[in-house]
Every structure is written in C-alpha cells, then in structure tokens.
C-alpha cells in the first residue's frame, strides 16, 4: 500500500497537480472495475454464443489489456506522462469492446471516467481535444447501434467535463492562496527584520557613543563622574532597546492594532536628546503641519530620522547633523545632512538605507541618499494621506515648531 501511495504521488507530481493520492486511486479503481465488468460480460456472452469467432475473443482480450495500460503507464513511468494516452487508450479499448455488442454495456462509462480524469489535469486546448475524440467515439457507437441511450452518456460526458474543470479550478485557487500566504510570510519576516534593525541599530549607536565617551573620560581626564553618567546612559539605552524590541515583536504579532506603541513625530525630541546626551551634535527643526498625519506616516518619518542619525553618528562621528521636517503642497519632506569626514569609507551590505526606501515606497514616497555639495544628504518624501485612510489618521500629534542649533 505504501508503494502504491508513493507511486500515486509521483504520478500527480509528473502531471503537475497536488491532488490527494486518494483522488487518483479512486479514479483508477473505477476505471479498472469498469474494464473488468465490460470484459466479464463479454466473455460470458461469448461462452453462451454458438460458434463465436476467434476475432471476437481476441478483441475482448486485447481490450481488457489496453484498459489497464493508462493506470500501469501512469504509475510506473518515472519521468514523463503523455496526457493524451488516457483518451487514446480509452477510445481503443471501447472500440475493441464494441466488436462484441451486448445489452446493458458498461464500456461507454469508460468514456465518462476518462473525460473526467483528463479534464482535471488538462489545459483547455487539450481538454477540447479529449472531448472531441471521446464524443466522436460515442457518436460512432450510437450510429452503429453499440450504445443504448446515447443521450444519457452524452450528458454524463458533459457532466464529467464540468466536474474535472471544477476540481482543477479549485486546486489552482488553493495553490494561489498558498503562494499568497508564502509571499505574505516573506513580507512579514522582512517587516519584522526592518523594525528590529531600526530599533537595535539606533540603540547600539547610542550605547557605543556613551561607552566611547566613558572611555575617553577615564583615559584623558580621569573623570569618573562623567564616565559613570555615560555608562548609566548606556545601560538605560540598552534596557530601553530590549523593551522596544519586545514591543515591536508584540506589535507585529498583533498586526499593528496597538497604535500607542508606535513612535511618531512627538517622539522625535526624545530621540534627538538621546544622541545629544551621547555627545552627538544635532540641529533639529520641524515646521508646523496643518493636516493630521497617519500613524504609519509618522512611524516612517521617525524610523527614517532614527536610521539616519544612527548612520551619521557611526560613520561621521563629531560632525554636526542637521535634521529638518516640514510639509509641502502634496506631502512631507524629511532632510538629514551631515559632514563627510576624510576617513569615511563606503560600507556595503547594510540594510538601513534599503529599509528606509522600502518604508517610503510602501507609502508611495521615495528616499534619496548621496553626496551633495560636499556633504552627505538623505532626503525623503512621503505623500499625505487623505480621509480615505480613515482609521489610520491620528490627531494626537499637534502642529508645533522646534528649532535647536
């Protein structure tokens, strides 16, 4: 039984469809039972016939053998299955059976089983070919008087096509749903990685700046008090990072339902303050917004500023970082500029800039970064959301202007 299931799965894989093995086994079983029934009826008929011809005995024997070929070929073939084989072998089998016409013949049912099986795995063009061939066989049987109630068999053929196509459509729909789930899982993992990267990269930058400040205070000035303050800030930032990571993961697990957990424009002052306490000079300004921003837009602005400050403090230590945020006629512009030290080198492989661009593109915006006038400039544009976004709009961030030099 295990061998049969394995062979059936391989057959379905060669056909390119993920039907349960039981479907194919049931279809093959029905096909074989019908072949055996038609053969037994004819052998019984011939045994009661006076002087049956040898041709009739041979035709029934060959028909019985060819009736098994589709199943044997499908289960034993290892590399390729010729799909028209079922239709052609069925036509040959039924034609040979009809050499010995009998009453209440089961042979025409092979046409119905065959068209149902082929419709479940064939393309539309191949299905039309199968239907034309098998309908032609049925028509020949009706004309020659081999088929009783031909209209009923014709209706069953139509029903078989419908059943096969419905099975195939359902399977393809399930396949698309699985692919969509897999794609969504990839996007979810990428989103989680981006969120955690933003949180951890920022926190590590602050921790490293504080630790560097503590080391210099001890080495150069012997000021244990200043060093202790820097280490306390580093410890606090590390704990805050762990809290942010847990909060981010929980937020992503709950599909972002808790908007209060997401940082926004109101949290930029605190963000800038952490860099200043770590010894980075930051000039921050934000112009007034007359239109409320969605929580998603505010989170994107926060992450872009956070990532840009982390990059600037890591690659251009000691330079003044200028951050400006303000509305335009159609959106929000975020600009971060810092000096480029002579020792600065390109560090390939980072995901921060790519993450910023992905965030902006998801909102219909864009991010550009590069040298501009001898300085490094990151500029982001995010379009304003209109009222169609409804639930995404939050009123908790009021318009304000801050400026620090």
From TrEMBL:
CC terms in the record's Gene Ontology section: membrane
Top enzyme class: transferase
All copies of domain Signal transduction histidine kinase subgroup 3 dimerisation and phosphoacceptor, residue ranges: 189-255
Catalytic activity line of the entry: ATP + protein L-histidine = ADP + protein N-phospho-L-histidine
Residues spanning the membrane: 21-40, 55-76, 81-100, 131-147, 153-174
EC number: 2.7.13.3
Pfam family of the protein (one): HisKA_3
Keyword annotations: ATP-binding, Kinase, Membrane, Nucleotide-binding, Phosphoprotein, Transferase, Transmembrane, Transmembrane helix, Two-component regulatory system
Coiled-coil segments: none
Keyword Phosphoprotein in record: yes
GO molecular function: ATP binding; phosphorelay sensor kinase activity; protein dimerization activity
PANTHER family from the UniProt entry: NITRATE/NITRITE SENSOR PROTEIN NARX-RELATED, NITRATE_NITRITE SENSOR PROTEIN NARQ
Protein's name according to its UniProt entry: histidine kinase
Organism: Gordonia asplenii
